[in-house]
UniProtKB/TrEMBL annotation:
Entry keyword Acyltransferase: yes
InterPro entries xref list: GNAT_dom, YpeA/RimI_acetyltransf
Keyword annotations of the record: Acyltransferase, Transferase
RNA-binding listed as a keyword: no
Alphabetized Pfam families for the sequence: Acetyltransf_1
Residue intervals of the N-acetyltransferase domain: 11-161
Protein name: GNAT family N-acetyltransferase
Domain of life: Bacteria
């Protein structure tokens, strides 16, 4: 029987995180470190009891199929923006052997319900551009872009330092 449950067991999250971390290392080795169970386990252990974070598991037939790490975000008002609240999805991962079976959608539905129950009307997330599977999944879930995050790699450009000469 399919269940979505919350957990404080950082070791379960650590194991379920490995495949998505390895994908990030594969897609963006210049940004991601190799998976280090001790370091990543220590990180998850340090935040697992923080009430700002919620860790959800997809359980089916007595086995964990995936997880989500979400955060209750409170954006303060600034001179430029209004204050707002959201649920931010840091990670969502379904084990490779269980993808395409609806587990991700069940997990997202649980996240939507948590947001509603907490008076939050927005669920936010981001994903790496090279992760086409994530892009398709979130499009199917109805997510829309409202901000683009771009970069320019200056290491790839020939330096022109003439203007620095005094």
């Amino acid at each position: 029987m399919l269940k979505i449950i919350s957990t404080k067991d950082y070791q379960v999250i650590l194991k379920l995180n490995k495949s998505v971390h390895d994908l990030h290392v594969q897609l963006y080795p210049e940004h991601f470190k190799q998976y280090d169970e001790t370091v990543i386990g220590g990180f998850f252990q340090s935040i697992i009891n923080n009430p700002q974070f919620l860790f959800l598991l997809v359980e089916d037939e007595g086995e964990y199929r995936g997880y989500a790490w979400v955060e209750y975000k409170d954006y303060p008002e600034s001179p430029f923006t209004k204050s707002r609240q959201s649920i931010y999805v840091h990670h969502l991962n379904i084990l490779e052997s269980h993808k395409g079976k609806g587990y991700g959608s069940h997990l997202m539905n649980a996240i939507y319900e948590i947001a509603r129950k907490n008076g939050r009307t927005k669920v936010e997330l981001d994903y790496w551009v090279g992760n086409g599977a994530a892009e398709k999944f979130y499009e199917k879930e109805g997510f829309q872009s409202y901000r683009e995050y771009v970069f320019k790699d200056l290491a790839m450009l020939k330096a022109n330092v003439d203007f620095l000469k005094v």
